[in-house]
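Field notebook, page 148. I keep forgetting to write these up properly, so this time I am using the form the group agreed on. The chain and the ligand, DQA, are recorded exactly as supplied. Prediction of the bound pose follows.
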Amino acid sequence: MRVVVIHGPNLNLLGKREVGLYGDRTLEEINSTIKSQAAELGTETLFFQSNSEGELIDFIQRESPNADGIIINPGALTHYGLSLRDALSDSHLPVIEVHLSNIYAREEFRHKSVIAPVARGQISGLGWRGYIAALRSMVAELRGTVWQ
Ligand code: DQA
């Protein structure tokens, strides 16, 4: 089983960027935690970050035929990235949307996600642990088992 984990614009700056909102872990640290949890679950992971919507779409088009699910934090593209949404929808893979911060407790423009309607579900506000919750849920669902 292979799950791709995608991070959108500005998430390369995690650990330095708005630590009060996004936490002090770097993207590398978060990815390595996800990777080790996935290994325990017997799941392969592939990680990608880009600040460009086009590169995110190219990655999804290239990798989705060899993947079983997508976990994505689309960054600000969450709120307006219609091409990214179409790419996720066209992948026909289960998608879980993750946000470190609680987007509903922030500015009004962050309350709308154009990605959510094509996602299996969304986790918002649980910090880096949201990725682990998404991973466990994705793997359990792909295996058709109960999340333990
Ligand atoms: C974010 C929330 C977005 O509104 C913001 O633009 C981000 C990060 C989050 O993880 O909380 O870049 O996706």
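OBSERVATIONS:
- The longest strand covers residues 2-7.
- The domain at 2-143 is CATH 3.40.50.9100 (Rossmann fold).
FOLLOW-UP: compare against the apo run.
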